[in-house]
Amino acid sequence: MDKKLKGIFSGYTGHASEIIPILQDIQDVYGYLPEHALEEVAGFTGVSKTHVYGVATFYAQFRFKPKGRKHIMVCTGTACHVSGAEQVLDALERHLGIGEGDVTEDMEYSLESVGCIGCCSLAPCAMVNDEVVSRIKPSRVSKIFPKKS
Ligand code: FES
Predict the structure, then answer these.
(1) Is the CB of 26 inside a 6 Å radius of any atom of ligand 1?
(2) β-bridge pairing 109-114 and 70-75
(3) Is the shortest distance between the CB of 75 and ligand 1 below 6 Å?
(4) Whole-model pTM?
(5) Is residue 144 part of a domain?
(6) Has residue 146 been placed in a domain?
(7) Which domain holds residue 82?
(8) How many domains in the chain?
(9) Cα atoms in the Cβ-side hemisphere of radius 13 Å centred on 136
């Protein structure tokens, strides 16, 4: 077991009721839930890996892949939805060759959809790391998010 996991587990007793906070801590540290960490959580809490995986997949907050250097969160809240968020998301998926929750092979971009990010007057919009990208047109996606190769 690596040091990071040991550090996380040291704050818990190993009871099965602690699975969710443990998973949250793991995601805070790694940015996602690595496969080996899920196995260690199962061992630590005395439940099956399938159970841990079932808990993790139930909650949308958990990621199973690392984030790219540029993490794109496309807003699909009401204002963005009526302004074409689905078309923006489709265009991004086609352009980057990945689906929601995935990361590009070169680790440059990762993609997910989120609820309202509080910039409704700029719809359709997205957050890229900490910055808002506003009024995204599907036809401009390849210019806004250039691929390296
Ligand atoms: S609905 Fe997209 S920012 Fe509010």
Answers:
(1) no
(2) parallel
(3) yes
(4) 0.79
(5) no
(6) no
(7) 70-138
(8) 2
(9) 33
Cβ of residue 78 lying under 6 Å from some atom of ligand 1: yes
> Do 129 and 88 have their domain in common?
yes
Write the burial class of residue 68 (CB in 10 Å: 0-12 exposed, 13-18 middle, 19+ buried).
Answer: buried
Summarised one tens digit per residue, pLDDT across range 90-124 is 999 999 999 998 999 999 999 999 999 999 999 99
Q: Which of 119, 29, 32, 139 is nearest to 74 (CA)?
A: 119
Residue 17 makes CB contacts below 8 A (sequence gap 6+) with none
Give the Å distance between the CA of 65 and the centre of ligand 1: 25
Average pLDDT, the chain: 94
pLDDT at 76 over 90: yes
Does residue 148 fall inside a structural domain?
no
Torsion of CA 112, 117, 123, 127, to 10 degrees: -50
**Ligand 1 atom closest to Cα of 78?**
1
What is the average per-residue pLDDT within 8-29? Answer: 95
